[in-house]
Amino acid sequence: MSPAITYTVTAFEHWILSYLYVKIMPSFNRSVLLELPIPATMDPDQLMSCGQMMLKFVADYWKTIENRSVLPSIQPGYLRPLLPSHAPEKPEQFSQIINDLESTIMRGVTHWHSPHFYAYFPTGNSYAAVCADILSAGIACIGFSWIASPSCTELEVIVMDWLAQALDLPEFFLSTGNGTASEATLVTLLAARSKIFCQMQKKDPNITLGKLLDQLIVYCSDQAHSSVDKATLIVGCKIRKIVSDDNCVMKAAQLKQAIIEDRAKNLIPFFLVATLGTTATCAFDDIAGLGKVCQDENIWLHIDAAYAGSAFICPEYRYLFDGIEYVDSFSFNPHKWMLVNFDCSAMWVKDRTYFINAFNVDPLYLKHDYQNVAPDYRHWQIPLGRRFRSLKLWFVFRIHGISGIRKYIRKHIELAKLFINYIENDKRFEIVFPSTTLGLVCFCLKNGSNELNEKLLKSLNEDKRIYLVPSMVKGRFILRFAICSYLTEVKHVDYAWTVINEITTKLLTKT
Ligand SMILES: *Cc1c(COP(=O)(O)O)cnc(C)c1O
């Protein structure tokens, strides 16, 4: 039979074929197949005993995390000589893997939850979220549509409403969870592109997306997160960075000027990403001013509040999102500062039509009877598959309550203030780009050159007692001190200050 001829096996033929295989074909032996000793992957007893070992390992890790060097002392490629060059041919014991962890994996871990970790921004963690993730992994459903696992969609709708209420977001927002803030920026950008394309098509039915793309331009501040660049690269349109003011804040006047210049070049501004809590200095763009411009100019306003968004759970910080009524979409990361482990990003949009437009692909096998009454979250994201992420939020809300989350945020902000106090009372240092200090403090050596500040940071990180990362802002090399760990207490900030003090003294007497 030539391979080009398609051939349908009828039930009878199928029966004959399997009969022949079983009876005659020596290589296909039913009894052998049944006896093959494949280990039971979903053995509940194994889950209990191995799970206990794993939990004990993590619990011991949390207990000792403070005593571990926050940065590992290894070089790139360290792991290869420690592991076999091939995957094991024969199965191994779970306990053996656990025994190997310290000498292999743990040697190369940067301890993000160490109380001596002050780099980047925090990433959340809690026993509540970890336990919820065990359930998510145990159920292991793929909740791309309502019918694909109803509680997955329904819990998400509910906890996103809880979250919106806890942050006091405007009621008109419809919500969805995402993996990351970067994904949220990308999908809203695609939705905004779909919106402007629909609008332009009404004016000119012959316009193609290809032609339009040449004219579309995205705005963000020069302080926006790199994920905005990435999103525009993927979508294939131009981007213009609006120059922020001396405090790193993007203002309406600069946006307006850019729009005038770009419209004169026949470009079409259609999307602005404003940031509440920039990554470098935690600056807050003026969304009330920017929002008015966006409204007048038919520009979709997306807010990236990846880090700072969690602070809005405290009423005293809500003034920071003044102007939220102008916003078309808003996202923040509970996985940064709300006790939820990675990944869990929340996003709200005013009008979901354009999401459905941008992503609606409807093959028959994904259709179901409830499409019009329940959201199918696959239309809100790039991948089809979707984890049961809302469990983490649900557990965290229930274990800590809104009051507990507020306490945690406020404590971090108080610890940051303690650090500011140290810096301000030492003549060698200065606070730079002071905006609303949440848990991030930016500082540097007063009158110190970039080179000197770079040396200070290098010495601190080579010392490895604490870990900070720098930032280059408006030509200045600055040090960022972010309160990150749930475990960080006053004594740790005191200790960090002692380390910084000691290393600075050493550095300044040398130079
Ligand atoms: C951390 C951060 C991001 C990236 O978040 P992911 O969830 O890792 O994509 C985006 N924007 C800002 C302002 C951030 O601080």
TrEMBL record:
Highest taxon in the source lineage: Eukaryota
Keyword Lyase: yes
Any single biological process term in GO: carboxylic acid metabolic process
Presence of the UniProt keyword Lyase in the record: yes
Pfam families: Pyridoxal_deC (PF00282)
GO cellular component: cytoplasm
Modified residues (N6-(pyridoxal phosphate)lysine): K336
Signal peptide: none
Record keywords, A-Z: Catecholamine biosynthesis, Decarboxylase, Lyase, Pyridoxal phosphate
CDD domains: DOPA_deC_like (cd06450)
Catalytic activity, EC: 4.1.1.28
Necessary cofactors: pyridoxal 5'-phosphate
GO MF: aromatic-L-amino-acid decarboxylase activity; pyridoxal phosphate binding
Subunit: Homodimer.
Family membership noted in the UniProt record: Belongs to the group II decarboxylase family.
Protein known as: Aromatic-L-amino-acid decarboxylase
Species the sequence originates in: Didymodactylos carnosus
